[in-house]
Design a protein that fits this description.
With 193 residues, the protein is an alpha+beta fold. The chain has helices at 9-14, 24-79, 83-104; strands spanning 115-118, 123-126, 136-140, 145-154, 157-166, 181-185. The chain has three helices and six strands; from the N terminus they run H-H-H-E-E-E-E-E-E. The strands form two sheets. The protein has a four-stranded antiparallel β-sheet. Strands 2-3 form a two-stranded antiparallel sheet. Strand 4 (145-154) and strand 5 (157-166) form a beta hairpin.
Length: 193
Amino acid sequence: MPPVMRSDDWDRLFAPNAPKRGGPLRALIHIVVVTLLLGALAVGGMWLVGQRQQQAERLAATATAYAGTIVPQLTSVAGATQTVEAQGTATRIALRTATAQAAVGPTGTPEPGIGSGEVVRGGNLRREPRVAPETVVGLIYPGDRITFLERRRVGDQVWFRIRVDQPAVDRSGEGVPAGTEGWASELLLSPLP
């Protein structure tokens, strides 16, 4: 077997004008640069994942608010022609009237609020700040004048307890009467002044 080394290897590799091979300092610099690049990619990836998660949460909150307001409206309109719905309407009207009378209170004056505003998107007025079929008091419509009574954060969504002061003139259906109190998502209401 021939020898692996040649006699001129020393001169070829280590002569003063031989090509530079780097050495331990260059290897350390390469390791540091690669580590910094990988770290920057990891931090950027985590930031992007966080942004996507926030976007998904915002979309889920919007979908929850819309699903809780639009679907019941469509169901209510479609079922209004049935006699069973007519009986349920009479019950709801009685409940709304009782709610409106209870909102006025024994002295006949409504409780003061933390501000006033109006409904900007139609939706459901609820007994408590959560989306569930059993919490629906009735419908509020864009243009309804309201008084903000209380603000509460439930999870990642803000809810307001409101009182309907003056129903909108151009309502497209039967909504809650003036004086009715309940909870509505901030997505349905004008900003608190």
